[in-house]
Amino acid sequence: MKTLLERREAARDGRNVDPGLGTLAGEGAEQRVRRLDAGHSERRVMAPPEPELEGRPSYYGMPLLKEPVWKWFIPAYFYVGGVSGASAVLGAASDLLGPRGTRALSRRCRLTAAAGAGASAALLIADLGRPARFLNMLRVFRPTSPMNVGTWILSGFGAATAAAAGAALLPVGPGARRAGDAAAAVAGLCGLGLTGYTGVLIANTAVPLWQGTRRALPVLFSCSGAAAATALLELFPPGDRSEPVVRRFGVLANVSELVMTGVLEAEAGVVPRVARPLRTGISGALWRAGQALSLASLALTLGSRGRRSLRRAAGLCGTAGSLALRFAIYQAGRRSALDPHASFEQQRRGRGAADVVRAQPGLDRALGEKGAEPPATPTLHDPGLAHP
Amino acid sequence: MGFFTDSTLCIGCKACEVACKQWNQLPDDGFRLTGMSYDNTGHLGASTWRHVAFVERESPLPGQGSPRDGVEAGARAFEPLRPLGQAGTTSPLADDVSPSHIETPVALGPTAQAMGKFSWLMLSDVCKHCERAGCLEACPTGAIIRTEFGSVYVQPDVCNGCGYCVSACPFGVVDRRADDGRAWKCTLCYDRLEGGMVPACAKACPTASIQFGPIDELRERAAHRVEQLRARGVPQARLYGESAASQPGTAGLRAFFLLCDEPEVYNLPPDPVVPTKKIADSWWAMAAGIAGLGLAAVGVVLSARRAA
């Protein structure tokens, strides 16, 4: 009888070619002929003509960048990770400083955080194909890779939340309970990182929209994670004296989330072509829906006056809004990657290398780059000018 | 070591594509016509590590034309260059492509007149092996390394298939293989270099458009070539990414190009930047954001305690 894992591997789902083959039989050996009607090879089609692009050069409108390969697991992970990270933060705060009678809140937060950490790991493994690949991420520590840093954060977070949740669930002695409290505090710290690093992760790509909103994204993800976590708490209220805590945290998170969506739009809108996927198409609709739902959640929370049904509705709106925002950002990023003019326009407007070279000549040295002093006067905009 | 790809010498024969596929045992991409030009490959990918771009333009390029236009084909603008470490061009025609026996221009018919305003740009594109590589810095497993030859290499036995390098490449080079989910790209024929050979594409190139050698020598050669072309009436000739000064976003490319038009025309980004170069902004923003989140949580709990 084969295990589930073995059956999955034997199914040749396209993720388990023998890694030895590359070294034994040529670099790309055993690669199957690309199926013409499958996958993203279909993307090589000419873009429909657009009047606004008249006179702007491109290579038959073909995409410059590769579309991000991530499937729905990744935006779902952004949501789950945000919820569990922010839950751990709120839980740690109420553990350390909370008023009496919020035991249920901190317990609920610990359980949400632990369950979310497990679900996050499951989503990442689903994206990679098999568990060993998750462990493979931990073979190095690489500060230049937010994905690597994030895997370390998630691992630490998972361990800490598991310990904290264990101490909350099991009948343990005072010593173990104190250890559980300490673990909850550690989980809170890791949770802070978990809510924000996903924004850094996608900002660290060549995708024009994500790179162009690199300052707003991590903050929006943190705020949105907090809003999503309180939305979940409103849906399943802990029911003790923690109500004002949840309510106030929710209002703060919701307001900051809405503000950050505006900030993100403004940051993207500096180059109109880059911001286009936030205004048009499915991604634009998702984005507006996310904002509307978030606003509805805020209004319902403020107007609920303790009415259970309204708070539930607020929780529902908040959850849906947070999910919609993440999927909108994901989808809009994919679309901006497929639009070569988004990259071209961004770079021609001095938002390629030029702005970092101009703004932070010392940055590269700080990051450890050797040699390669930036030029005194960056003349990249017209390569013809660079070589008079 | 690196590549200097001189697009003015490229004749679009695709020998580099074929040689690359053959040496590296890459499968074909299916026989499909893109319908936009002679370019049926489209872009670099997991099974395409060299790609010849065909740009059809409605503007003339000195040295290109046909005897029917009254332009002497070749016009000796593109004198062949002996590639480094290789024999001269394999074609006996290369030294004497111009049919100089046609003394008088032939009268132009309507087709020829239309063709008079036409020129081809061809470019054999490849992984740029950036001095500061976005894929290498983004790779969370350390699968992508810089080899002793200075090239950027994806170790297939370590690659996780997370796809981060795919999005981190400002040139859209790295791609995930459809059948096993790992990232693949040009290796600069690491295995051939280890054996003291030149990369398969450079070896197969019949016009020395792809030149392989020590990067400094290639830069000198390229600068000389640009001067030569400009002197012969091709003022558009320019280098792309040959040094850190001209392309600070990548600190220079190990595979750089000589172009005769804007980079966009060849589907190259005009001012590419390694994403990690900008990421400090993001980390700072995140630090501010999570500090706010932590303070909000603490503040809310404290305010509830005061109320209680």
Automatic annotation (TrEMBL), chain A:
Top-level taxon of origin: Bacteria
Keyword line: Membrane, Transmembrane, Transmembrane helix
Keyword Coiled coil: no
Alphabetical list of PANTHER family matching this protein: PROTEIN NRFD (PTHR34856)
Region span, Disordered: 1-26, 364-388
Listed transmembrane segments: 72-97, 109-129, 149-170, 182-203, 215-233
InterPro entries listed in its UniProt record: Electron_transfer_protein, NrfD_2
Protein name: Polysulfide reductase
Residue spans of biased composition, Basic and acidic residues class: 1-16
Annotated source species: Anaeromyxobacter paludicola
